Amino acid sequence: MLSRLCSYSIGASSSAFFGGCRSAEFRNSFIPRSWDIGGVGLVRNMASEGRQFPPQKQQAQPGKEHVMDPTPQFTSPDYRPANKLQGKVALVAGGDSGIGRAVCYCFALEGATVAFTYVKAQEDKDANDTIEMIKKAKHDSANNPLAIAADLGFDENCKRVVDEVANAYGRIDILVNNAAEQYKASSIEDIDEERLERVFRTNIFSYF
């Protein structure tokens, strides 16, 4: 749904990307203490201190990045932006944390104006943190970032998001389809029709 709707707001040179699924179970690399990502906070270099990484499993959906300790690594202090996306407008579905947050941050470093979606009342803290990261990373020529609360499992919400971004910035040059959800089950017999449809609505139908 998002890709089809964005086709009316983007040019021929625009791009769409597809991200991976986010669950409440994380497997990440980690940032040394000396790295400061967007000024939001520092994390411990546990490896150099000879300690084991703590479990990064959360029981509730969606997984929340702000409760993780250490914080996931998504950039390097040696990275040198080259303004490759200056003047572009990017929409990242599910951009509040994980892969989506990393994409938002790196796109901002490269000069893009960034908008992203998140789930209201569940991902507000991560969304606010991501907004602050983007503001600190963005190029002077880029517009302020936009965070849009939306459940993309419903067509009307996909349309609303595209309209809101296009109205705010005039167009959409890049779409990153990263919003997704998944649920663990011990057996395929434990997956009921309602849950299966829910996963497909978010992970598949919302993209097209």
Automatic annotation (TrEMBL):
This is Glucose and ribitol dehydrogenase. Pfam families: adh_short. GO terms for molecular function: oxidoreductase activity, acting on CH-OH group of donors. Belongs to the short-chain dehydrogenases/reductases (SDR) family. Keywords: Oxidoreductase. PROSITE patterns: PROKAR_LIPOPROTEIN. The gene is CAISE5. Residues 50-79 are annotated as: Disordered.
